[in-house]
Batch of 2 targets.
Target 1
Amino acid sequence: MIPAADWLAKRARLSPNRVAIIEAATGRRLSYAEWNARANQAAHALQALGLRKGDLLAVLSPNRLEYLDLLFACNKTGVILQALNVRLAVPELQAMVQDIPPRALIYSGDLAEKAAALEEAVPVMVALDAPIRGAHRRWRELAARASDRPPDPIPLSLEDPWVLCYTGGTTGLPKAAILTYGTITWNAVNTVMSWGLRPDDLAVLNAPLFHTGGLNVFTTPLVHIGGASVLCTAFDPDQVFDLLEREPVTLFFGVPTMFIRLQQHPRWKRADFSRCRIVISGGAPCPMPVFERFFEKGVPFKTGYGLTEAGPNNFWLPDEKTRRKPGSVGSPLFHVEVRVTRDGQEVGPGEPGELWIRGPHVIPGYWNRPEETARTLVGGWLRTGDLAMFDEEGDFYIVGRIKEVIISGGENIYPAEVESVMLGHPDVVEAALIGVPDPEWGEVGRAIVVRRPGSTLTAEELMAYLRARLAGYKVPKSIVFVEELPKTGAGKIDKTALRQQYGR
């Protein structure tokens, strides 16, 4: 008998020979039967380490096949995967494992020094590659000795935790959102039903697996429907273009920074996206020039909206609306409810307010954070902290974060709108808008801009460009040119770091 919760065992029974994973670096292909056997070995290896249902397994590694094995080994054993952000500094990681101590930590060789700094807080240390300490176990040996037969069934309910996925917060200690079997299942159901995923779909997986975008935009929904993922270590524009030429890629998800880098690459002009059914941006507002360049190629490019606490997939815009409504995230998915509120009251079309979300894909809360949970989840609704509005047809637009709105002389300035216009300038590579104190207006905008290499664009020239396209109060009062913008672990522009450095 196959336990109801064992996703890979179910999929391997239903479509054993269908390709599940393609390793981008080698072209190696794994069927669902082969992947399930690897996950069974990983499950037995975790049990040999003494891990049982409810124990926390921290993973500190970039994307690799073993990471996916461990995700579904946890599914088979009830062990909870604690996904650590590999881009964090040692003090940040130390604070996280001290706050939520894992029973074991599995790390990759390129992160061995960071892992060594965490060993005092972790009883069991395991290396995916050569261990940094003699006392650390070798994962390859553990897995090689383990049986590829199914482990004994573990009773699991939809309420049981599967993954602790840290929010993208950049102030204080990140919160660990509890992704249960129910929330991951319902996100998969919503995505397959509402986005129309198919068994013959192939997605590029280069978003980090420590982030909900890597785990749940396409990866887990594709297991549900029997599709496949091309596993990449990280985002690399050349590799993306190679994959588009070499593999029948039909699905591609990225954050705006990734799409901007693709469009600035010399290979962009000849890149062929014609086999891609879905090309979708998420994680942050996407600048309008990105849409326009995809439209020029005939690609119905669209933006989605998600967050670690809900899904992350929540909306869908049909292809026939993409050119008419660029920037709209569309309408809620099949089992998703939303409302837009201001001062506790729902608002009408065209009025911005806070987006609230309800549905079985919403997390039950944060690990050991009852106060944060109570503030965020109210009466069954998730208060997102994001500003949204909807039009007369019921299609939604994400305006920005409530905390990022700049109030200047009583007027609201939404950074995403100004950033989109700035990125329309041919000499602007990246741009962010933050608020800075002003004695006359209370607060004004300051733009932090990365110029195209070799550009001599001046602040005065960029302001003139913006004044021709925006209301005067929206035009930033100062512009700072930098070599690059700081990014969060999810690849989004780190507005908190920008405010700390340039917000005075």
Target 2
Amino acid sequence: MSQIKDNLRAAVKERFAAVAASPGQDKKFPVGPASAKKLGYDPQEIDALPPPVTESFCGVGNPLGLGELLPGHTVLDLGSGAGMDSLLAARRVGTTGRVVGVDLCREMVEKARSNAETLGLRNVEFVEADIENMPLPDGSVDVVISNGVFNLCLDKPKVLAEAFRVLRPGGRLQMADILLHDDVTPNEVAHLGEWSD
């Protein structure tokens, strides 16, 4: 079972490394600013961002639209990718707040760091880590956001446990994701493609 998990994790990392390096090359799922706008992000806010911030966006919804982020909040972005959600969150929480983006893919973390530098944001950091074992203390986060990442996790209960471990009392989870319906057969699943598709 360990080899299967390692292979799946490697496939996810490879897929998103490619999206970081060449976002226009992936045709299997929507990537970029046009996708963000279709998912409910403010078009003016998206258009005001430099292309490197939005070009590798590959979310499935708008977790920022699920609740207000306030100045001073600490936000954790699970599977932060190239950082678009984290950077938008950093603007909302202001200089008294903090955002931590955690992603498994080194290339995405590097791109997110570069994007934060381009925008001059000092209240956001990006960490290369597995979201099943986050490098954050208990009760240190006001809001956990996640966008299209939970479905890629091999141990979903562990990821949820980690999210709730780092949340402060009264904190919340704002998550957008996809799921597989119960009526989909194993044969259909086998033909849908890779784990990261």
